[in-house]
Amino acid sequence: MLLENKNAVVYGGGGAVGGAVARAFAREGAKVFLAGRTLETLDRVAEEIAADGGTAEAAQVDALDEGAVDRHADAVAAETGSIDVSLNAIGHGDVHGLPLLEMPFEDFARPITIAMRAHFLTARAAARRMVQRGSGVIMAITATTARMSIPHVGGTGVTFDAIESLCRQWACELGPQGVRVVWLQTTGLPEALHGDRFPDYGTAAGRGLTREELIAWLRPKTMLNRLTSLAELGDAAAFLASDRASAMTASGANLTLGSVPG
Fold first, then answer.
1. Looking at the domain assignment, is residue 52 inside a domain?
2. DSSP-assigned beta bridge partners for residue 89
């Protein structure tokens, strides 16, 4: 197994994306520590992992709370002796559907501010434990909007750009101490789309898009005419977190099916 005897913390582990990665980590042998604000959803993922033969613990942790993040990292390190992998998959409170000309600054800036605080705090908490052992992997998730210009997505593209830039800075500072920092870049994730209506994203539909219409609009933007699945994301994350990817740092795994050239 790729992650046997590894301890992995997944922030946002109760969500569709974090949960998928957590399940993949557990299947590959990691002990997974699920962290997030809603204990009910975290417990559900932990139960599913246990039912599949894996090991997971859930804890209520607000990734924006510096003290809570540090206390949780201390507790995990004290229990297991190490934090080997830390992945941040929390939501950022993005607002879509308005052109920038009409968007309040607070709605534009919210995802950027949330992402930078959460990713900085969780990465720092993990890194402080990892450098003591001279190893570890810090991970993030971004999307095509970090490289593609799509209208009416507010601060989302800037947010993903900022996450990748922050990862590169962490990587250059932590690399000499044996810690890798990487990210996974995806298309939209159909299984993570919840709701009946979505913004038209400049398609001129004028009435918004149904889930099926949004997926149909996104598909042709890829070379394989489909979108990234949660299973693909989880499998890639497990590989990237493993020693088999030991030459990778300050870089992302391109899971965009060709919509963003490598």
1. yes
2. none
